[in-house]
């Protein structure tokens, strides 16, 4: 049997490495599907849009931090498995594109902060308003699905204590529920704040 030349042996080795890498990538993807059922829908071409569920009523009663983290998953279907790199760079979801992530971060988020500053300088109110306004703007600019994925990824990338995270996720959902309603964004948000719909106190 003729011996392979050095170039051919190197080519065989290279092809073998590529095949092994491909197998590893497929295996990692399948593990992610097992951990996150929504990915199965994305992989098959579906585009599930999260429904806006009725808002739970938060309480200021102190609870253990891990309790609020568990409540966040239960009440808001919080996806804590992936950060922004997954949806924005790896771009495995039909729901969110790299361009939408860039616009959300560099345009909509500063605009949301500016409007929140106009409405209230109080720290707790200002932070709650920014989350509400940002999610509202993303929902109207893109979709509820995109707004939720980006906002959830933000909480993964910049984690807070569980009781604060719960408040943020609560107000993110309030913002999505206010989208495409009558009135300007400022009017809708001011009404939501004055009526107590926007939650300014940490806790679950």
List the defining traits of the structure above.
68% helix; 204 residues; 9 helices; mainly alpha
Describe the model.
- The chain is mostly helical and 204 residues long.
- The chain is built from 9 helices and no strands.
- The protein has helices at residues 6-35, 37-43, 65-76, 84-90, 98-119, 123-141, 144-157, 162-178, 185-194.
- α4 packs across α5, α4 (84-90) packs across α7 and α7 (144-157) packs antiparallel against α8.
- The longest helix is centred in the N-terminal third of the chain and has 30 residues, at 6-35.
- The protein is globular and about 80 Å long.
- Residues 26-51 have low confidence and may be disordered.
The span between the termini is 73 Å
How much beta, percentage-wise? under 5%
Tell me the radius of gyration: 22 Å
Shape: globular
Topology readout:
Elements: H1 6-35, H2 37-43, H3 65-76, H4 84-90, H5 98-119, H6 123-141, H7 144-157, H8 162-178, H9 185-194
Helix pairs in contact: 1-2, 3-8, 4-5, 4-7, 5-6, 6-7, 6-8, 6-9, 7-8
Brief write-up:
This protein has 204 residues and is mostly helical. It has 9 helices and no strands.
